[in-house]
Amino acid sequence: MSIDVQELNQMQRDYKLAVENWIAAIRHEEARASVNHSVAKVDLWEAAGASEEEARKKARAAKKAYEDALRQEFFNF
């Protein structure tokens, strides 16, 4: 079964966007680690870490969906 090129293009765009969002989350977390030492700032840093983890999961899921579609398209599995 052939996958529509438009669908593959959309999956590729979704993956790239997810990676860009993940990169932004990493930079946000890093910025929170570079502030004054206080409990409130540590809490913000930890929250940013949780957001980064969520962004990573979304990027990996988008990558898997795109890779699976490519495997189906090129190798029929």
Note the main attributes of this structure:
77 residues, 86% helix, mainly alpha, 0% strand
State the low-pLDDT regions, or none: none
Number of helices: 2
β-strand percent reads under 5%
Helix content: over 70%
Rounded to the nearest angstrom, the distance between the terminal CA atoms is: 10 Å
Radius of gyration: 17 Å
The secondary structure category is mainly alpha
Q: H/E order of the elements?
A: HH
How many separate domains make up the residues?
1
Mean pLDDT: 94
> What's the main sheet like?
none
Give the beta-strand count: 0
Structural shape: rod-shaped
Q: How would you characterize the overall build of this protein?
A:
The protein is built from 2 helices and no strands. The protein has helices at residues 5-33, 39-75.
Outline:
The protein is mostly helical and 77 residues long. It is built from two helices and no strands.
Could you give the topology of this structure?
Blueprint: H1 5-33, H2 39-75
Helix pairs in contact: 1-2
